[in-house]
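Example for tutorial group B:
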């Protein structure tokens, strides 16, 4: 698939998008100075249908994605209709559409995995959850089921979080070399926008989310644990209820409940992951329950309360001052707990 990008390098340049040097027709590999340092332009794309580029008009870092699936294109076209233009539309924005050699290429913002870097404040987590639930509600109201609403398909716009941007090949670096990225906190650059991506398994159901037509056979998505999939013969699932389970289990339980201070969301997770699909709440009810649970929190405590992961693991992209931050977080949480016990907060 890389040959496609090389072949169409000049056509993309004419359209206003400049690919990395590796895809120039006359590219020559950079010399390897040390055996343990492989230059960025020696590394092939992980996914051939995805590539990054610079939009020449404003030097914006963007993502290019080629589409050959009529189903996925139909879903994206549905999401681009005028009635879909809503602040609660949390599906990836389409900045431009190109037609090259019979292949449709959508230009999208260059996004980053939504939980990298890790969240540092409880308010940051709750804002991400709110947007994810808003996006799910929006898709379902527009009769679209994602069918893979899992952790790997939720991204964030990190342009303000990481002003220097980052490498597609080595996302922990600024330009694919060994220069580490530097980022700000979500709290400092709020609001950060979160989006659903990858609609390969998505579908439009004209009759809506409660119709019998939304029942599908087989299995779908990264999450292999839905009770519907345990059927030994031919498993089947209700597409919209599967979305609810995937967000509740693969996103909320496996990601956000890893953080201290978010245990109060357990009732929401339980209602979204009920073993019986028809007993699960829908997306609108999930968002309403979330807002109800959050409304009971003290605003000042919510804003200032630092959090740390229960697993206490340090990821490769954690800030250099992470130890100091963790000590400060634990001390701050300890003080808040003591004040709460004394009835002073």
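The residue assignment follows.
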């Amino acid at each position: 698939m890389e040959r496609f990008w090389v072949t169409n390098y000049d056509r993309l340049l004419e359209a206003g998008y400049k690919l990395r040097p590796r895809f120039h027709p006359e590219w020559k590999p950079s010399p390897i100075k040390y055996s343990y340092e492989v230059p960025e332009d020696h590394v092939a794309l992980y996914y051939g249908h995805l590539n990054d580029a610079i939009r020449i008009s404003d030097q914006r870092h963007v993502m290019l994605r080629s589409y050959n699936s009529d189903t996925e294109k139909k879903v994206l076209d549905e999401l681009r209709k005028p009635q879909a233009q809503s602040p609660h539309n949390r599906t990836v924005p389409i900045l431009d559409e190109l037609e090259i050699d019979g292949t449709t290429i959508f230009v999208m913002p260059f996004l980053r995995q939504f939980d990298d870097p890790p969240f540092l404040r409880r308010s940051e987590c709750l804002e991400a959850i709110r947007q994810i639930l808003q996006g799910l509600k929006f898709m379902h109201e527009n009769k679209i089921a994602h069918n893979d609403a899992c952790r790997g398909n939720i991204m964030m716009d990190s342009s303000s979080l990481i002003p220097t941007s980052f490498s597609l090949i080595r996302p922990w670096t600024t330009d694919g070399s060994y220069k580490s990225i530097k980022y700000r906190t979500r709290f400092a650059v709020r609001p950060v926008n979160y989006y659903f991506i990858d609609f390969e398994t998505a579908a439009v159901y004209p009759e809506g989310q409660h119709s019998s037509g939304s029942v599908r056979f087989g299995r779908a998505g990264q999450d292999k644990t839905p009770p519907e999939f345990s059927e030994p013969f031919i498993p089947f699932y209700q597409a919209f209820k599967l979305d609810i389970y995937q967000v509740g289990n693969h996103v909320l339980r496996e990601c956000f409940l890893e953080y201290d201070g978010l245990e109060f969301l357990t009732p929401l997770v339980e209602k979204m992951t009920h073993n019986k699909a028809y007993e699960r709440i829908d997306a609108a009810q999930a968002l309403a329950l979330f807002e109800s649970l959050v409304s009971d929190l003290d605003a000042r405590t919510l804003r200032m309360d630092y959090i740390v992961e229960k697993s206490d693991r340090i990821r490769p992209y954690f800030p250099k001052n992470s130890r100091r931050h963790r000590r400060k977080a634990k001390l701050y949480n300890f003080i808040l707990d003591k004040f709460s016990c004394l009835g002073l907060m």
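The mean pLDDT is 85. Compare this with the pattern of hydrophobic and polar residues in the output above.
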